[in-house]
Amino acid sequence: MLGFTRYQWLVLLAAWLGWGFDVFDGLLFNYVAPNCVPTLLGLAIGSPEAKHATLMWTGILTSVLLLGWAAGGVLFGKIGDRIGRTKTLLITMVLYAVGTAACAAAPNIWVLGLFRLVAALGIGGEWAAGAAMVAETVPESRRVEAGALLYTAAPIGLFLATAVNLTVAGHWFVDRPEVSWRYVFLFGLLPAAAAFAVRLFVKEPERWKNLANKTEAKLSELFSPALRSFTRSGFLMAVVALMTWWSCNAFIPVVASGLANSSAIADGLDKIATQQRIEHWKLLATVCFNLGGLIGTLLTIPAAKYLGRKKMFAIYWTASAAAILATFGLDLEPQARLYMYFAIGLTVFGVFGSFTYYLPELFPTRLRATGAGFCYNIGRVFAAGGPFLVGMAAARGTDTVVGVLFYVGFIPLLGLLFMPWVIETRGKQLAD
What angle do CA 47, 52, 54 make, to 5 degrees? Predict the structure, then answer.
């Protein structure tokens, strides 16, 4: 199938698991925040003070995650070029698994932030190692398909996070929301088992081994005259995508919870019924977003192959702006607004299917993980400002967060302004 050998499928599966669990662990906090944050701050869950604190701390801790993600991406990208893709994948998966599970024991919000930072280092490092490993293993003619298939792990990871949260908080501990979030975090250990399976069956790519240790990869080389334009191209596209995605996605559970809570009050529901509606509306919004993301990811394959990378990015930026502005600008019923997350997923989420093949295409083998990791993850330093500002501005309530998210729709339009600096890589082979 697709011209891949059995071993190439195994490599793709290994990287796919790494990225899927990466997203799974990274987003667990956003699902449990409405219960976790008030508990750690000593506030009554569902109270006005709790809602205010949840919005504010969701923004702060998401920004902390992104900063740690950026540091881990740059650090482990360089390590991946030095010690190998497979070893780096193992180390980073174990790191983010342990960091996430440790959040279950957090006694206060500050320790929770520290554990999230540990997990973030591993999450950031995993992507560059996995993307480089896949790009260097599959046939040149199937790099786009392999990269897009790799990124389908992201919506699947979010589906898994949604299912775990719904099962634990919506069924097992529906009457104990003050402790349910701790059990949700314990599921963060799942990637550790997958990590050891990766190490047993996957070896280093031949392309990397042929050049390994001949010359040490230096971060400064990314800004040399020969590579500067490639680094700029990858960075600009990644930072627009990251700022948009995180400003939208980080607040899906919060928006869904706020809308569900207001609806439950209007319908006169009791505490348990209200909590069940909240968890099910979170599921609705997330399923719409993830399903759109899965389809949008796969659509990058024909877009990139037949239109080219530049036209593909231009189409996704235009459609992303339209989807966000419509979702948060139109006067919609609460559930209709949640269904609109499908359009956001299709565009804002879908464009990420391209980075797993576009960024590795920009750099030579000895700098591939370093360069891809830098472009994809250093953008998170800038993206960290999005959730922080949205969270602070939206802390006044659900209506306010909807209004603030409307303005996020203008971020993708920056991508259109950056088009003159985007380098087209269609039809080009990976450089050694």
Answer: 90
Q: Whose CA is closest to 151, among 341, 359, 366, 427?
A: 359
Q: Could you tell me if residue 191 is inside a domain?
A: yes
State the CB neighbour count (10 A cutoff) for residue 225. Answer: 6
User: Considering the domain boundaries, does residue 129 fall inside one?
Assistant: yes
Q: How many domains would you assign to the chain?
A: 1
Q: Is the pLDDT of residue 54 over 90?
A: no
pLDDT over threshold 80, residue 324: yes
**What are the structure tokens assigned to 311, written together?**
């036209």
Closest CA to 73 of 95, 92, 98, 97: 92
- Rounded to the nearest 10 degrees, how much is the dihedral formed by the CA atoms of 30, 33, 36, 38? 160
Query: What angle in degrees, to the nearest 10, is found between the helix axes of 109-137 and 368-383?
Result: 140
Containing structural domain, residue 188:
7-203+216-421
Residue 76, CA atoms < 13 Å, CB-side half-sphere: 32
Examine residue 198 and state whether it is found in any structural domain, yes or no: yes
| 229 has a pLDDT exceeding 90 | yes
**Average pLDDT, whole number, for the chain?**
84
Nearest to 193 by CA among 270, 115, 98, 128: 98
- What CATH number corresponds to the domain at position 383? 1.20.1250.20
Q: Which pLDDT score, from 0 to 100, does residue 397 have? A: 55
Q: Could you give the CA distance from residue 291 to residue 46 in angstroms, rounded to a whole number?
A: 29
Q: CA 258 to CA 261: how far, in whole Å?
A: 5
In a domain, 301, yes or no: yes
pLDDT above 90 (res 20): no
Query: Could you write out the DSSP letters of every residue in 153-190?
Result: HHHHHHHHHHHHHHHIIIIITTT-HHHHHHHHHHGGGH
Using an 8 Å Cβ cutoff, are 382 and 239 in contact?
Answer: yes
